[in-house]
Design goal:
Radius of gyration: 27 Å
Helix content: 40-55%
Shape: globular
Distance between the termini: 50 Å
Structural class: alpha+beta
Strand order of the largest sheet: 1-2-4-6-5
Oligomer: single chain
Number of helices: 22
Number of strands: 17
Strand content: 5-15%
C-alpha cells in the first residue's frame, strides 16, 4: 500500500507546487484559531527553519517536511505581523458621544438599508487628531454626500461589537483588518464643511472622477437601472432600493452587485479581445507588434482604471490581483488560465491580505474558479473534439457552437454552485434554489450586453459620446432587474440551512482541493472528506437557551418543534441573526414551550449577566452564551471562549 501511495505521489510531482498556498493558508488559519495572541518572537519561526533546509539537503523526505513547515510558519508570521502593525496604529474607540470632523473614505448601507459612512482623517472639537477610522450609520436623510467630502457631526461611537453568539461571524475582526476602530451612529444632521487646504490627493481626484461618472449615469438612466449601474461601475450600492436588493439576493444574483472577479475579468478580457481585434484589422500594426502583449498591457491598464473608479474596495483589489496574474502570464507567454496561474494568484492575495482567508469573498471566489479550471482541464479535450467535428455544413457548426455555449453555461454554473455551496451555507445560512436558472438567463445579458457596453461607456465618456452605450447598459439592466424580481417571486425561491461547524468547512475545503489539484485516480478520495463535512450539518446541536452579551435578549428552544421563543425585549438584529444561524422559525405561543431549562434554571440579570442554576455569569466575561441541556447535564458555550482575547476584541 505504501509503495502505491509513493508511486501516486511521485506521479504528481508536477502538481506539488499547487499546494504551496494551501500550506501558507494553514499557517494563517492556525493564527486565527488561537485563543490568545502569541508572542511576537514566534514570527521569526520561518527564519529559524531556513538552516534546516540546508542541513537536511541530502534527506529529501525530511527536507520536504521542513519546507512545508516553513510555508505554514511564513503564513502565520505574515498575518501576525500585519495584526501587530494594525493594533499599534490606532486604539479601539471608547464608548460615548463626541464631536467629529473628518473626510468620508467610503459610503455604503447598513443591514436596514440606511446610509453609512466610513470617516477618516478625524479631529475632535478641540482640533485634536482622532486616530483610526469610524464606521457610522446615519439616522437622518442622506444630504447627498460623496466619497472625499469633509463633514462634521455628533456621533455615538463604541468599539466594534463581538459576535452575538458562539461560532458567530466576527465582525470586529473584519473591521479590525479594514482599519476601522469604531462603529456607531449619527443621531443628528451631518453637516458638510470645507476640507483643509492641501494639494489634491490621488484619492480626491479619483473621487471627483467617480462623482462625474455617477452624475452622468443618473442623468441618463431611470432610477433603478442607474442605481445598479452605479453599483457595478462605481461600487456604490446605497441608492438601490431595498426590494430590488432583496430580489437580487433571493434570486442568487447578489454577487453581480458587488464588484469582484466577475466584473474585473470581464472588463479586462473584453478590452484584451477588443485591442487584438482592432490590431488584426490594421496589418502594419499586427505585423510590427505582438498584438497579444499589447492587448494584455492595455487590459491591465483598463483594469487598474476600473479599480480606481470602483473605489478600490478590498474584494475589488483581490479581483484585480487575480486578473493581473492572468494577464502577466499572457505577457510572459505562459498559459493564462490554468491551475498553476490560479495558484500564484491565491498565494499573492494571501501574502498581501492574509485576513482574506477567513472571508466569504476569497473562499467562494477561489472555490468556484479552481473548480471550473480543474473541470476544464479534465474535459477540455472532449469539448474541442465535439466542436471540431467533421461536418462541413455551416448550420451544423453553428448549432454545435450554440449548444456548447448553453450547455457550457449550465455546466459551469452547476460546477461553480456546487463548489461554493458549503461556503454559502457556512457564511450566509441560505440556499438559493433557482440561482442556476437566474445565472443561465442573466449570463447572456451580463456577458454580451451589460459589461461590453460598460467598457464602451468608459471609453466613450471622455469624448462626450456616452449616451448611447449607457442606454444599452440600462436596457440590459432593466431586463436583469425584471428577471431577478420574477425569480425571487417564485415559490420556495430561498431556504434556510443550519450553519456547519468550522472543522467541517475545513474538511470540505481540503477534500475539494484534493479533487481539484491532483490529476491521478486517487483524487477521488477527496469526495469522502467532502461528504463527511456536509453530513456534519446533521450533527449540529442547537442551544436550548441563548443570552446576548447585554443580558437583554434571551431565547428559548421549544424542543417540541425546534422553534425559538424570544422573551420580551429581544433586539431585531439578534432575532434575524440567531434564527438564520440555526435555520429556525420563531415560536409565538409561550404556553407551548417545552424545555428543561425553562423556566427557572436560567434567568437573565439585565445589564449584568445571567443566572444559571443559581450561578452568576458576568456578561463582560462571557459576552453572551449558549446553554445546552442533555440528560440533566448543563453545558455552556460562551462567546468569549469562542473568540478568545485577540487584538481585535480586547
Amino acid at each position: 500500500m505504501w509503495s502505491e501511495l509513493k508511486s501516486c505521489f511521485l506521479y504528481e510531482r508536477t502538481r506539488w507546487f499547487l499546494w504551496v498556498p494551501v500550506f501558507f493558508a494553514a499557517g494563517i488559519g492556525v493564527y486565527f484559531a488561537l485563543p490568545s495572541e502569541p508572542p511576537l518572537w514566534t514570527a521569526a519561526a520561518p527564519f529559524a527553519l531556513l538552516p534546516l533546509l540546508w542541513l537536511f539537503r541530502r534527506r529529501p523526505v525530511v527536507r520536504g517536511v521542513v519546507l512545508l513547515l516553513l510555508l505554514a510558519t511564513a503564513g502565520f508570521a505574515d498575518v501576525q505581523l500585519k495584526s501587530f502593525c494594525l493594533s499599534r496604529k490606532a486604539p479601539p474607540a471608547e464608548d460615548g458621544k463626541l464631536y467629529l470632523r473628518g473626510r468620508i473614505d467610503r459610503l455604503d448601507t447598513n443591514y436596514r438599508g440606511r446610509p453609512r459612512i466610513v470617516l477618516g482623517e478625524m479631529y475632535d472639537f478641540e482640533d485634536n487628531p482622532v486616530a483610526g477610522r469610524y464606521r457610522l450609520s446615519m439616522i437622518h436623510r442622506d444630504p447627498g454626500l460623496e466619497v472625499g467630502d469633509c463633514v462634521e457631526m455628533v456621533a455615538a461611537v463604541s468599539p466594534p461589537f463581538p459576535p452575538s453568539l458562539a461560532d458567530g461571524y466576527q465582525f470586529d475582526r473584519r473591521l479590525f483588518f479594514d482599519g476601522i476602530t469604531g462603529t456607531g451612529y449619527i443621531p443628528s444632521e451631518v453637516l458638510p464643511v470645507k476640507c483643509p487646504d492641501s494639494s489634491p490627493r490621488l484619492a480626491d481626484r479619483a473621487a471627483a472622477l467617480r462623482r462625474s461618472i455617477v452624475e452622468r449615469i443618473y442623468n441618463i438612466l431611470p432610477p433603478d437601472e442607474a442605481a445598479v449601474a452605479v453599483a457595478i461601475v462605481a461600487g456604490d450600492q446605497t441608492k438601490i432600493s431595498r426590494p430590488l436588493i432583496d430580489a437580487y439576493r433571493n434570486s442568487g444574483l447578489a454577487h453581480f452587485l458587488s464588484i469582484s472577479g466577475l466584473h474585473m475579468s470581464m472588463l479586462a478580457g473584453l478590452m484584451f479581445f477588443l485591442v487584438r481585434m482592432v490590431m488584426a484589422l490594421i496589418p502594419p500594426l499586427s505585423l510590427r507588434y505582438n498584438s497579444k502583449k499589447v492587448a494584455a498591457v492595455l487590459a491591465i491598464f483598463i483594469g487598474a482604471v476600473y479599480l480606481v473608479i470602483s473605489g478600490a474596495a478590498i474584494p475589488a483589489q483581490r479581483a484585480f490581483i487575480m486578473t493581473l496574474v492572468v494577464l502577466l502570464a499572457v505577457l510572459f507567454e505562459r498559459q493564462a488560465i490554468s491551475v498553476r496561474t490560479l495558484t500564484w494568484a491565491a498565494l499573492i492575495v494571501l501574502v498581501v491580505t492574509p485576513e482574506a482567508l477567513v472571508g466569504a469573498s476569497f473562499q467562494m471566489s477561489f472555490a468556484a474558479v479552481f473548480a471550473l479550471v480543474a473541470f476544464y482541464e479534465k474535459y477540455a479535450g472532449r469539448l474541442n473534439r465535439f466542436l471540431s467535428g467533421e461536418e462541413v455544413s455551416l448550420p451544423a457548426k453553428i448549432g454545435r457552437g450554440l449548444f456548447a455555449y448553453f450547455a457550457g453555461t449550465v455546466i459551469a454554473d452547476l460546477v461553480a454552485s456546487v463548489a461554493t455551496l458549503p461556503f454559502g451555507i457556512y457564511h450566509f445560512n441560505q440556499l438559493d434554489y433557482y440561482s442556476s436558472l437566474t445565472n443561465l438567463l442573466s449570463g447572456p445579458l451580463i456577458g454580451f450586453v451589460i459589461m461590453p457596453f460598460v467598457l464602451v461607456f468608459l471609453l466613450a465618456m471622455p469624448f462626450g459620446l456616452e449616451w448611447l452605450p449607457l442606454k444599452i447598459v440600462g436596457f440590459g439592466l432593466s431586463l436583469t432587474n425584471r428577471l431577478t424580481v420574477w425569480v425571487a417571486s417564485l415559490p420556495h425561491a430561498t431556504g434556510g440551512a443550519v450553519s456547519m461547524p468550522v472543522w467541517a468547512l475545513v474538511l470540505i475545503s481540503l477534500g475539494g482541493l484534493w479533487l481539484c489539484l491532483w490529476r491521478g485516480s486517487w483524487r477521488i478520495w477527496g469526495t469522502a472528506a467532502v461528504v463527511v463535512g456536509m453530513l456534519a450539518m446533521a450533527a449540529v446541536d442547537k442551544p436550548d437557551i441563548i443570552v446576548d452579551r447585554q443580558g437583554k435578549t434571551m431565547v428559548v428552544l421549544n424542543r417540541r418543534n425546534g422553534k425559538y421563543f424570544f422573551l420580551p425585549g429581544a433586539s431585531r438584529w439578534n432575532k434575524q441573526n440567531w434564527l438564520s444561524k440555526y435555520a429556525a422559525e420563531e415560536e409565538k405561543n409561550r404556553r407551548d414551550i417545552y424545555n428543561p431549562l425553562y423556566p427557572g434554571r436560567v434567568e437573565p440579570v439585565p445589564g449584568r449577566g445571567v443566572l444559571v442554576d443559581g450561578r452568576f455569569f458576568d456578561r463582560n466575561e462571557t459576552l453572551g452564551a449558549g446553554f445546552y441541556e442533555r440528560d440533566g447535564h448543563l453545558r455552556m458555550e460562551t462567546v468569549r471562549g469562542y473568540i478568545g482575547r485577540r487584538p481585535w476584541n480586547r
